[in-house]
Write a structure and sequence with these properties.
The protein is mainly alpha-helical. The protein is 57% helix and 6% strand.
């Protein structure tokens, strides 16, 4: 048989198909690139990284991106991370530690005294002369879906250690089975693709069509009470997705650290087992009651088992359950070459006198007291110190005690009282007030708050702050809280100066500019207040508290103009400015009072009385306004009304001779009015 050579492919046909393939790929890519460029040129959208370039510093400095969480939660629900400054090139000899997690790791209820701050203080005390830079990369309400891209970003930021404390938000956080933040349990591959597309401005534009309008149901943060209808039972099949997704995310987080050559110290998420009853679920509550009974009988081991089961059966799953912590443990132990796994729950339970961590360690279900944060930070610090020592960096200092850490961070009785007050407000709200032991928890916290209030010495507290600032003069948190403490004592000008120094250290913080503006308002420096508040609004245009303070400063400026006009003898000008102040801010009691004074001088008693009355309604303890109101009512022959006000003043100021005389006169006039002479 004759062999026929094969026919070679036609070059033209091959080139045609290659050209078509290039067009199919290149044209869409070109169009997407063009659209992306147009969106960026137009200023649409926002960066999605955790860190962004700082406009306030040079040499590649980074600060936190307040919009980082927008990729995972609706903007109105997303919480900003803590103000953070990071230099790409760290100082020689500095050990940089990143702390990843959610609100408990961030330091809620007061990050100034949270895990990252205590970890830094402890390491500095253990290794005198060494510089430690602990970066708070934890954010309230996020979970492993957000922590994964954050960790990958930090892999390129020259970290020496990573601390991982995560797991509580896997069910109720973004994409979990009990979330209120949007889609629940989507296919993980599709979820990651969608999150990747949101890094593009074009992707953000498409995603914006799925965001509810401002004020729509569920679009505003209302605390944990938002989740009351999101109960997830222990046998819910959606939990399987949660466990699988968490395992995949955590595996990838550990891989990112391993790839960057960063040692990781991690722990399972710790819960308040003994003193935080389940939020929902009859079976869970029954287990908690049995645990309490067993503990009262001295059966600690059996009680602990029941407490754990109560947590695992809790239908409002705000605490990491046993399966999530088992995943953390398994992955941590499997990567022992790069990961130090710590069982924080076991350690903190063992440190409790009763063998089960409770209210000495936690304020509520997962957030730590100062003492609890110290215990957790010490545990992580031990893990880091052991690795440093194994590499030849031997510690030469002792571990700082709770009291020593409190001194260095200026955790005073004033701070303790402020934090307790915020926790008490929280525990009065759902779902905390639905717990079986809600009254017990609130009662214990109120008792502690009363003890702290009785022993509070603000002068001593200020001395502690001044001493702490000697060692950390540029610590903006110390300066901030010192300013707030000074404000609580009425020393408003000093408060503003301290807050001003804090804002100079962290000029990108909208909170600091807001607090500075509020302090200037209290000090009567309304022009300075307007400047600071304007800066806060530039940083965050949707900041209602700033708008309220800015209204007060604008009214205050008019008030000061009124005082100036009055001093110059311009009665009409003074009245105009004081009236303008009340029109800008109807809650400005002093301005209403001055309007009343102007009307008295104009011999218009009815108008004056109305203004004094408004001042008293706004500020019942405004004695001068109440006295003038009573005097005006006497002139208007409204003796009964006048008598009420003078009686109130007499109760408050029993030794005031002028009040006593007017009270006597009002009684006489009322008697005369009620018993006219024939």
């Amino acid at each position: 048989m004759e062999h026929k050579p094969s026919t070679p492919p036609k070059p033209r046909a091959t080139r045609t198909w290659l050209f078509r393939l290039v067009l199919m790929l290149a044209v869409p890519a070109l169009l997407i690139g063009l659209a992306e460029s147009l969106f960026r040129l137009a200023g649409y959208g926002h960066p999605t990284s955790f860190f962004v370039a700082s406009p306030y510093h040079k040499n590649g400095a980074l600060i936190e991106n307040t919009k980082f969480a927008w990729r995972f939660l609706p903007p109105t629900l997303a919480r900003a991370s803590q103000p953070t400054l990071l230099h790409r090139k760290k100082a020689s000899g500095t050990i940089r530690v990143f702390v990843f997690g959610e609100s408990a790791a961030e330091g809620d209820p007061e990050p100034a005294f949270g895990l990252p701050r205590l970890l830094e203080i402890l390491l500095e005390g253990r290794f005198p002369g060494r510089d430690f830079e602990v970066i708070n990369a934890a954010v309230t309400a996020i979970n492993s879906h957000a922590i994964l891209p954050l960790a990958r970003e930090c892999a390129g930021l020259d970290g020496d250690f990573w601390v991982l404390y995560i797991g509580h938000n896997e069910v109720m956080g973004p994409f979990g089975a009990g979330t209120v933040f949007g889609q629940k349990t989507p296919p993980l591959a599709a979820l990651r693709l969608g999150l990747g597309l949101k890094r593009l401005r074009l992707g953000q534009w498409f995603a914006s069509f799925g965001i509810p309008d401002e004020g729509a149901d569920g679009s505003q943060w209302k605390g944990m009470g938002m989740f009351l209808d999101q109960q997830v039972q222990a046998d819910d099949p959606q939990l399987d997705w949660v466990y699988d997704a968490y395992k995949k995310n955590l595996s990838d987080i550990l891989a990112a650290g391993r790839g960057a050559g960063v040692p990781i110290v991690m722990s399972g998420a710790v819960s308040n087992l003994r003193d935080s009853a389940p939020f929902a679920g009859d079976d869970a509550v029954a287990q908690f009651q049995q645990a309490r009974s067993l503990e009262s009988e001295g059966k600690a081991a059996e009680a602990r088992s029941r407490y754990v089961k109560a947590r695992d059966l809790d239908a409002l799953r705000f605490r990491a359950d046993s399966k999530l912590n088992a995943i953390t443990r398994a992955l941590g132990q499997a990567a022992a070459d790069s990961v130090t796994y710590l069982d924080a729950q076991a350690v903190l339970d063992a440190q409790d006198p009763g063998g089960i961590a409770g209210r000495e360690t936690f304020y509520e279900h997962v957030h730590f007291t100062f003492e609890g944060n110290h215990r957790l930070a010490r545990l992580f610090a031990d893990g880091i110190a052991s690795q440093l020592a194994s590499n030849g960096d031997k510690p030469s200092g002792s571990w700082l005690t709770v009291a020593e850490c409190a001194g260095r961070l200026a955790y005073t009785d004033w701070d303790r009282g402020v934090v307790l007050a915020s926790v008490i407000r929280r525990l009065r709200q759902p779902p905390f007030n639905h717990r079986l032991n809600s009254d017990e928890s609130l009662g214990q916290l109120r008792d502690e708050a009363q003890r702290v209030a009785k022993r509070l010495d603000r002068t001593a507290a200020l001395a502690i702050y001044d001493n702490a600032l000697k060692a950390r003069p540029n610590d903006w948190r110390l300066l901030q809280r010192r300013g707030l403490l000074l404000s609580s004592t009425g020393r408003q000008n000093e408060a503003a100066e301290s807050l001003k120094r804090a804002a100079e250290q962290a000029p990108w913080s909208r909170i600091l500019h807001y607090q500075l503006g509020a302090a200037w308002n209290k000090a009567g420096q309304y022009g300075d207040a307007a400047v600071s508040l304007g800066r806060a609004l530039e940083l965050q245009p949707d900041f209602p508290e700033v708008v309220s303070q800015l209204t007060l400063s604008r009214a205050g400026l008019q008030y000061k103009l009124g005082v100036k006009a009055k001093s110059a003898g311009d009665a009409a000008g003074a009245l105009a400015h004081f009236t303008k102040a009340t029109q800008i801010d109807d809650t400005f009691a002093k301005a209403h009072f001055q309007v009343g004074v102007c009307w008295v001088e104009a011999d218009k008693m009815a108008e004056a009385t109305a203004s004094f009355g408004r001042a008293v309604v706004l500020k019942p303890n405004f004695s001068e306004a109440r006295f003038n109101l009573g005097a005006g009512l006497l002139k208007l022959e409204r003796y009964h009304d006048a008598l009420e006000h003078f009686e109130a003043l007499a109760v408050k100021n029993p030794d005031d001779i002028q009040v006593a005389r007017y009270l006597q006169f009002a009684r006489a006039k009322l008697l005369e009015h009620n018993n006219p002479q024939p």
